Amino acid sequence: MQDGTFPSPGHLQETTLPINAKQVRVAAISARGDAFAADCPTRKLLDRIGDKWSVLILLLLGDADMRFSDLKRRIGGVSQKMLTQTLRSLERDGLVTRRVEATVPVTVTYGATPLARDLLAALRLMIDWAETRMPEVATAQARYDARDAVK
User: Fold this and answer.
1) Which domains does the chain have, with CATH numbers?
2) Would you say 116 and 92 are in contact if contact means Cβ atoms under 8 Å apart?
3) What is the spatial distance between Cα 122 and Cα 82, in angstroms, rounded to a whole number?
4) How far apart are CA 140 and CA 136, in angstroms?
5) Which of 131, 126, 111, 120 is nearest to 66 (CA)?
6) Is the pTM above the cut of 0.85?
7) Closest alpha carbon to 55 in 134, 112, 12, 114
Protein backbone atom coordinates (compact mmCIF):
# COMPACT_ATOMS: atom_id res chain seq x y z
CA MET A 1 0.00 0.00 0.00
CA GLN A 2 1.33 3.45 -0.91
CA ASP A 3 1.93 6.23 1.60
CA GLY A 4 -1.27 8.20 2.12
CA THR A 5 -3.49 5.31 1.07
CA PHE A 6 -5.86 4.08 3.73
CA PRO A 7 -7.81 0.83 3.50
CA SER A 8 -11.49 1.59 3.47
CA PRO A 9 -14.26 -0.81 2.47
CA GLY A 10 -15.97 0.45 -0.64
CA HIS A 11 -13.28 3.03 -1.45
CA LEU A 12 -10.91 1.52 -3.98
CA GLN A 13 -9.32 4.67 -5.31
CA GLU A 14 -5.93 5.84 -4.14
CA THR A 15 -5.67 8.77 -1.77
CA THR A 16 -2.82 11.25 -1.52
CA LEU A 17 -1.48 13.07 1.48
CA PRO A 18 -3.21 16.47 1.84
CA ILE A 19 -0.95 19.49 1.58
CA ASN A 20 -3.05 22.23 3.18
CA ALA A 21 -6.10 22.67 5.40
CA LYS A 22 -8.49 22.93 2.45
CA GLN A 23 -7.26 19.61 1.07
CA VAL A 24 -7.61 18.04 4.52
CA ARG A 25 -11.25 19.20 4.63
CA VAL A 26 -11.95 17.98 1.10
CA ALA A 27 -10.30 14.63 1.82
CA ALA A 28 -12.39 14.22 4.99
CA ILE A 29 -15.62 15.00 3.13
CA SER A 30 -14.66 12.64 0.31
CA ALA A 31 -14.07 9.86 2.80
CA ARG A 32 -17.55 10.33 4.31
CA GLY A 33 -19.40 11.20 1.13
CA ASP A 34 -20.26 14.60 -0.31
CA ALA A 35 -22.05 16.38 2.54
CA PHE A 36 -23.36 18.93 0.04
CA ALA A 37 -25.06 16.34 -2.19
CA ALA A 38 -28.83 16.11 -1.75
CA ASP A 39 -28.67 12.34 -1.25
CA CYS A 40 -25.82 12.36 1.31
CA PRO A 41 -26.87 10.33 4.39
CA THR A 42 -25.01 12.70 6.73
CA ARG A 43 -26.83 15.70 5.28
CA LYS A 44 -30.18 13.93 5.61
CA LEU A 45 -29.50 13.12 9.26
CA LEU A 46 -28.35 16.68 9.99
CA ASP A 47 -31.49 18.03 8.31
CA ARG A 48 -33.65 15.90 10.61
CA ILE A 49 -31.84 16.51 13.88
CA GLY A 50 -31.30 20.18 13.09
CA ASP A 51 -34.93 21.17 12.74
CA LYS A 52 -36.50 23.09 15.60
CA TRP A 53 -39.00 20.40 16.61
CA SER A 54 -36.37 17.65 16.86
CA VAL A 55 -34.11 19.78 19.01
CA LEU A 56 -36.94 20.76 21.37
CA ILE A 57 -38.18 17.17 21.65
CA LEU A 58 -34.70 15.83 22.36
CA LEU A 59 -34.05 18.51 24.98
CA LEU A 60 -37.27 17.62 26.80
CA LEU A 61 -36.68 13.87 26.57
CA GLY A 62 -33.11 14.36 27.73
CA ASP A 63 -34.50 15.47 31.09
CA ALA A 64 -37.15 12.74 31.51
CA ASP A 65 -39.33 10.29 29.60
CA MET A 66 -42.60 11.91 28.59
CA ARG A 67 -46.01 11.08 27.23
CA PHE A 68 -47.13 12.47 23.88
CA SER A 69 -49.64 14.84 25.48
CA ASP A 70 -46.98 16.22 27.84
CA LEU A 71 -44.60 16.85 24.92
CA LYS A 72 -47.38 18.59 22.97
CA ARG A 73 -48.26 20.77 25.96
CA ARG A 74 -44.62 21.73 26.63
CA ILE A 75 -43.70 22.55 23.02
CA GLY A 76 -45.60 25.65 22.04
CA GLY A 77 -46.76 25.84 18.44
CA VAL A 78 -46.18 22.23 17.40
CA SER A 79 -49.14 20.52 15.74
CA GLN A 80 -50.14 16.99 16.64
CA LYS A 81 -49.26 15.86 13.11
CA MET A 82 -45.80 17.46 13.20
CA LEU A 83 -45.06 16.07 16.65
CA THR A 84 -46.07 12.58 15.51
CA GLN A 85 -43.94 12.80 12.34
CA THR A 86 -40.93 14.12 14.20
CA LEU A 87 -41.15 11.48 16.93
CA ARG A 88 -41.38 8.75 14.27
CA SER A 89 -38.31 10.11 12.47
CA LEU A 90 -36.34 10.33 15.71
CA GLU A 91 -37.41 6.80 16.63
CA ARG A 92 -36.35 5.54 13.19
CA ASP A 93 -32.95 7.21 13.62
CA GLY A 94 -32.44 5.49 16.97
CA LEU A 95 -32.69 8.69 19.00
CA VAL A 96 -36.05 8.11 20.68
CA THR A 97 -37.65 5.06 22.24
CA ARG A 98 -41.41 4.51 22.24
CA ARG A 99 -42.95 2.41 25.01
CA VAL A 100 -46.60 1.37 24.81
CA GLU A 101 -48.43 0.23 27.94
CA ALA A 102 -51.71 -1.65 27.68
CA THR A 103 -53.84 0.63 29.81
CA VAL A 104 -57.22 2.20 29.14
CA PRO A 105 -56.60 4.44 27.32
CA VAL A 106 -53.25 3.17 25.97
CA THR A 107 -50.25 4.95 27.50
CA VAL A 108 -47.37 5.81 25.15
CA THR A 109 -44.14 7.12 26.65
CA TYR A 110 -41.15 8.47 24.76
CA GLY A 111 -37.57 8.60 25.97
CA ALA A 112 -34.10 9.55 24.76
CA THR A 113 -31.71 6.76 23.79
CA PRO A 114 -27.99 6.71 24.67
CA LEU A 115 -27.32 7.87 21.10
CA ALA A 116 -29.60 10.87 21.69
CA ARG A 117 -27.82 11.66 24.95
CA ASP A 118 -24.52 11.87 23.03
CA LEU A 119 -26.17 14.24 20.57
CA LEU A 120 -27.62 16.32 23.41
CA ALA A 121 -24.12 17.07 24.69
CA ALA A 122 -23.32 18.72 21.34
CA LEU A 123 -26.69 20.48 21.19
CA ARG A 124 -26.22 21.93 24.65
CA LEU A 125 -22.91 23.46 23.55
CA MET A 126 -24.71 25.14 20.65
CA ILE A 127 -27.53 26.33 22.90
CA ASP A 128 -25.03 27.71 25.42
CA TRP A 129 -23.28 29.52 22.56
CA ALA A 130 -26.60 30.97 21.33
CA GLU A 131 -27.62 32.12 24.80
CA THR A 132 -24.22 33.71 25.41
CA ARG A 133 -24.00 35.38 22.00
CA MET A 134 -27.62 36.51 21.64
CA PRO A 135 -26.85 40.15 22.60
CA GLU A 136 -24.19 40.30 19.85
CA VAL A 137 -26.59 38.74 17.34
CA ALA A 138 -29.35 41.19 18.33
CA THR A 139 -26.93 44.10 17.86
CA ALA A 140 -25.91 42.80 14.42
CA GLN A 141 -29.58 42.35 13.45
CA ALA A 142 -30.44 45.89 14.55
CA ARG A 143 -27.46 47.28 12.62
CA TYR A 144 -28.49 45.33 9.50
CA ASP A 145 -32.13 46.38 9.78
CA ALA A 146 -31.15 50.05 10.22
CA ARG A 147 -28.89 49.86 7.17
CA ASP A 148 -31.62 48.13 5.19
CA ALA A 149 -34.19 50.78 6.23
CA VAL A 150 -31.96 53.57 4.87
CA LYS A 151 -31.87 52.02 1.38
Assistant:
1) 18-49 (no CATH), 52-150 (1.10.10.10)
2) no
3) 24
4) 6
5) 111
6) no
7) 112
- Residue 81 phi/psi, 5° resolution? -65, -45
Concatenating the DSSP letter of every residue in 40-102 gives -HHHHHHHHHTSHHHHHHHHHHHH--EEHHHHHHHSTT--HHHHHHHHHHHHHTTSEEEEEE-
Give per-residue pLDDT as tens, 69-122.
999 999 999 999 999 999 999 999 999 999 999 999 889 999 999 999 999 999
Q: What is the DSSP letter of 13?
A: S
| Terminal Cα-to-Cα distance of the chain (whole angstroms) | 61
Amino acid at residue number 74: R
Q: How far apart are CA 126 and CA 86, in angstroms?
A: 21
Q: Which residues contact 69 (CB under 8 A, 6 or more apart)?
A: none
Q: Distance between CA atoms of 55 and 49, rounded to whole angstroms? A: 6
Share above pLDDT 70 across residues of the chain, in percent, rounded to a whole number: 76
Nearest to 86, CA basis, from 51, 119, 39, 42: 51
Please state, in angstroms and as integers, the Cα–Cα distance from residue 110 to each residue in 52, 57, 62, 75, 146, following that order: 18, 10, 10, 14, 45
